[in-house]
Queue: 4 jobs
Job 1
Amino acid sequence: MLKGFREFVMRGNVIDLAIAVVIGAAFGRVSVNGSKIVYGSTITALINLLIVAGVIYFVIVLPLTKLAALRGVGDETESPAPSDETKLLTEIRDLLAEQRR
């Protein structure tokens, strides 16, 4: 049961959603009161937003990216070999291109 939960949480979608909620809550504090702009509180909220974003990046995103690289997730640099059908279609395309010349 815990293994399944861990796999669910380690998926990128759940972690991205959690990060978005935290950043959204921090960004929600950056607001303008009616027609008055209160510079002090707005600047403080922006600084807090940058601090929260930095902490999330260095505490959550960076370690999970390194963990995913160690596990080999998303490491699909090798393209699969083309199928016989793909090879045949490529040959047909090349032959048709030669006939048009």
Note: The chain has one domain: 2-75.
Job 2
Amino acid sequence: MEAGRALLEDPDLLERVAEILKESGLAGDPKNAKVLYLDITSRLLRRPVNRLIEGPSGSGKNYLLDHVLRLFPDEAYYRLTAASERAFVFTAEDFQHRIVVIDESAGLHQDGIGATIMRNLAWGKGISYEVVEKIDGEMQTRRIDKLGPTGLITTTVRTIDAEMQTRLLTITIPDTPEFTKLVIEEIGRQMAAGPAKVDVGAFVAAQRWLGITGVREVIVPYGPALSALAYAGSVRMRRDFQQLATTIETSALLHQLQRERDEEGRILASPADYRIAYDLAAESLREAAGGLTLAQTEAVSIVEALCASKGPEEGVSRAKIAAALNLDPSAVTLRLRKPLHLGIIVNLETVKGKPARYRPGSGIPESVPVIPTPEELFKDADG
């Protein structure tokens, strides 16, 4: 516990997280790992962050999760591959202040009672369920309550239903050859030296300290100023802004030994906490509000360029787009999913089973700032 507390006193704690994960064999940019680390830490707050990790098959979604979860005690999360519709009602597990991790969203139920249970687990205050049972020869009802709050992290290669989608912020595993090269090089290093042996005990202890000893109440003094500058043109921003608030609060919770307190002993989030939240959450929020990622924008631009050279009436194939981007065709499918949904790209092929033929549609909409930059938010404040 002393080692855990010492780690929490480090102002570069998230960089320490990135370093230990790199030592353990996680390749590439650690940004997504930092996001997940904050997400799982948010279990201790009143409304944990929910996260969807997407990427092509074999891109390393669960590999990333495996590495980050090693930094947490077992009681911080509950991990499954799939579950029956009512499993979360009848299990003896306690979900309060825990993160439910489901390795593939295909294990989530798309409709019916199972979907209702999952949506309430991922956003509501808990699950209340009544079941009819035969007791002493008589049919009686029994109420089962599973208290929250509970967070959800899941992975996918496909889309998930719209109702669940609005409860999740998304991160995407890189699909570029450059990232693949980094992964291959790490595998080669392990072939020669064996798996890395890294002691993560201090990180696990730090999370236990937060859960047992730490303060969990956080005040964000600049909350009103932030809400005044936030984008309000999307209904789902009502939920997404709450997830942004949780991310800020989680950073303050994590750095609580370095933050000031109010007269009631509550942690005061500093501008540094917003800077961390902005760096890690701004792209997910912009995408959730209808914007495109840089990778999606690049794919749309390639479709426009290829069609300009041969005529939009013919369209271009997925294979040609993949060749132009130097990507696997499955990665192209993932990048074009949202532009197709929004009508930015159109599939000319109407016969089911035939290869798609893409052409430009409505064009890329103008990007709208969803949350202010730290400079905009604190321009009139000191520090």
Note: The CA atoms of residues 50 and 168 lie 5 Å apart.
Job 3
Amino acid sequence: MSKCSYSLDTHMTTEHLNDSQIAVATQMAGSIGNLIQMMNDPNLLALASFLRLRRKKRLPLYTNNQVFVRNDPLQLAKLPDRIGNRSVIKLSDELFFGAIVGNQRIGTLFLTNNDFAKALQYDSTLIQRMPLNYIVAWDIDNHHWLHNSLRLGLYADHYFPAQYTNLGFMVRLLGSHVECVPLGSCQWDIDFLLSNMNRLRAERRIESPIGLHGHYQQFSERNQVVMSWNTVSKNCLLTNDLTYYTNLSQSERLTIWTSTCTHLIAPVNSDLPFRFYDGLITRSCLLVPYELQQQIKLLDLDQEDQSLLTFYARERLTETYMMNLVKQVKENWENFRQRQSKISVARMKEKIQEHHVADRVDRIFRLVDKMVAEDH
């Protein structure tokens, strides 16, 4: 019998539910009941109307020909200098947070939830002040960082969550203008990928999956999934420090992503993480948990992209099961490689642009333009 690194049986010693399992389920149900009651509070329901009226008054602050972003190497630094008809101006932390915390007027600011959280470290009263800049926010962590999501939604003129998880909760609080815009790949700039398309199409020697994931104590189940995959591939591992990887050049990162046909996706809370789109943009096969199937359907991926996905069940991660999946991915990759050899250069360019973070920023601001026009 193969070694079982993680399965449902490791958590259950009987076919019957025990008192602890019933208690935690009951406690969760009670908490959700309290939340539903709070979400029907008249003061809370009035938020959406208040925010809509406030946004209409702030419309003169909106600049539709340029957008200012934080030059953050982990998220938006790889944006092109122009997206559609807008100039993208990347600011140092000093200038960016000066515009937010110091309330220096520059125009339309595009910030992520991480930018906002850091701004709150400079000034915790930020949410209670009226910014002189028009604020468009992209919440990449609304699947788990809800207290920050709520504050960001109340602060911003336009709030766009990146995850479908908890989307209904934010719509309830902030109104119908909330719309999900999923993540995209942000590790490489578009021109770099276009000039290295030959590396995306080249043969890949390593067959075992790769997946360097950060270790987060609060997401123990996700950590266990990565540790389970580590039993069949030492390239799937957890780390407390991602500095080594984040300090690599674009070329060094691309070498890692194109060294194997298979990459592991182990989300923390039913989210579609950046690495999912890194896999698509590098034309790599992805091992994805079944729980993400519904979110992926909402992306409306074409058959070419869908053929890169192999789904796994978190509760069935025995060594035999995982090795069979790796074998299945290898077969999928060989089939994809045969089809890829017939794909035109123009088609490859389309895929790079489709899955890049620049496409998402363009999508967000086209939605903002529409909402601004409706508010006039």
Note: The chain has two domains: 32-184+357-375, 190-354.
Job 4
Amino acid sequence: MPATTLPNPSDHYIPLSTAVSMTSLYRSKRESILQPNYQDLDTLPLSETFHKTAIDLLLNTNGCLGLRIYYGMDVHEKVHAILVAVDGNNRDILPANDSLSTDNEEPIIIEVGQRCPPSCPPSSDLNT
């Protein structure tokens, strides 16, 4: 059954120690969870960095009450985060899919993050 409500905002927060444990486990399992033909190709990123201006623009989308992260794959078989705005009914804010729609404006969808590897951030508790 689809979720028709957004998660409770207070449910999103975790302690730094939990985040460190989760990112450490991911780094240690990242290659082994892949089929052998995808291993050692940096198919799965360690992180992606997005500029605040792009995130602000997305969050300022009319009706936006949340953010959804999809995962996609480019033609080089690298996984990327794709960010879209979500409304109060937990729906992606995208153009109407019916033929009566006259709104030709493209929705704000964010990708093209600074992918690590190869462009990794300075060391922190979450990436060492």
Note: The longest strand covers residues 66-73.
